[in-house]
Amino acid sequence: MAARIPEAKALLIDLSAPFGWSGSPPFYSAFGRAITWLVQQNSPHTVLAGEDNEAFWGFEWVDDHLLIEVDMEDRLQLAEATLRHAMLAIHGPRAINEEKFSQWKTRLNALGLTWDTANRTVSMPVDTIAKALDRVRKLKQSKTVTKSDLLKISREFTPHL
């Protein structure tokens, strides 16, 4: 994430994700992308012979993987199995942490957002917006701003970091 504040002649660059803020190795994103690429090269047809050749869809953010799929036939189970196989292929036999896997849902909170596939919406929780606006108002009223203040507001807008 980056932001520019022309009036202050300032440029902000959030480097928390590339440098492993989440506790993951700093290079994990390259491996995470490889896992997603492997998942997206497959479909139920390539995993288990069948008619459905629509590729699986997912994305990653640092060390989190999300799959978004249509609930038809055994597509959800095959997508999850494909993700697990891709993780094993890239990271080896100790790659899978069962506690990090969640059940399929039509509504979930991920990356600081609320995803509702039934209603086809993605939204930011109201309390997150209120906190962020409050911090912005306070920053606008103050004559000086500390680096700590900027980091706090940055985290309000990017809670997934």
UniProtKB/TrEMBL annotation:
<protein>
    <submittedName>
        <fullName>Unnamed protein product</fullName>
    </submittedName>
</protein>
<dbReference type="InterPro" id="IPR052055">
    <property type="entry name" value="Hepadnavirus_pol/RT"/>
</dbReference>
